[in-house]
């Protein structure tokens, strides 16, 4: 039995090393660009903190007058700004970023008890999760465990899902974005030893895999369930172009979410799902040559439809990680696709100039075009996943 386990471990190691061998050939030009982009990010975020009121968190730019849009702790993006500051502290070792992260985390600490949102993963894990990862301060661990407990109250065993929204005409709405919040639950089971959180995450991921995806592995945005029977009531969109379309950030959430689920569980079904989603994105005839998608792959007006840089940043970060888990040829394809996107995001077409863009890092994201909300503006979560992708590239390319 021990020999069998050693053999399996060796096979896994060889696969990982094979992926590294393919992806580890760093693009020297991109390494230079990513270093410059991180330097710009640090400058922008030091400027930004001077303009954000002490009681709020940065969200976006008002498209009408160019003013800074801020949010309070209950808004779903509240964890991204402190999370980005943690990334920048990790990269620069400048304590100013840690101080800013702690200052803003104090605003959202109370959200650990919030049972009225599915976004606690975004809000708490992107902020307190990075704080725990970097500092190992047990204070952050306890807050995260409370957050996971709050999130788990939204799980319905009949539907097999975590409820996303409490508003609107929905019966039991579940959005593809919710895949991202499962990371908090997986972490909670590892750290607490309580398997219930990870079981909820797996059940949600399995139910979503069954009902959210079409035959081509594009994703519906919203699946509404009957909470009494678990049956699918309807499949709709809320931020996409149509119920039948492939909303770009939704595809990115799915890709990132299933890649993360494979990392946390080593369940091959999640790896296969992530690869199918990646192939849908990369092979789509409407994917622009620069790797930055339109806000919806089926958006009206292509090629003049707005791009969504936030979807590109999430996708690039996910592809970098996914390349670590696949065979050599597939790893190389995903790695090169991420490199292409990062080359684009590090260019003047998408990267802000120092002191401009309300001190956000990236330009040209789309929040919700059907609601004319945050269209062609910077978004705090675009910055977060961009910086994460930059750090991942620099770390993994050198191996």
Q: Could you characterize what this model shows?
A:
This protein has 13 helices and nine strands. The protein has one domain: Glycosyltransferase (Alpha/alpha barrel). The protein has about 400 residues and is mostly helical.
Keywords:
399 residues, 53% helix, disordered N terminus, mainly alpha, Glycosyltransferase, 3-stranded antiparallel beta sheet
Poorly predicted regions are: 1-24
* Biggest sheet features: 3 strands, antiparallel
Can you name the CATH architecture?
Answer: Alpha/alpha barrel
Write down the secondary-structure element order.
HHEEHHHHEEEHHEEHHHHEEH
Helix content: 40-55%
Q: Give the class-level CATH name.
A: Mainly Alpha
CATH topology assignment: Glycosyltransferase
Average pLDDT metric = 94
Q: Tell me the domain tally.
A: 1
Percent strand equals: 5-15%
- Number of β-strand runs: 9
* Rg on CA atoms, Å: 20 Å
Which shape, going by the Cα principal axes?
globular
The secondary-structure class comes to mainly alpha
* Distance N to C terminus: 32 Å
Read across the widest sheet, the strand sequence of neighbours is: 5-6-7
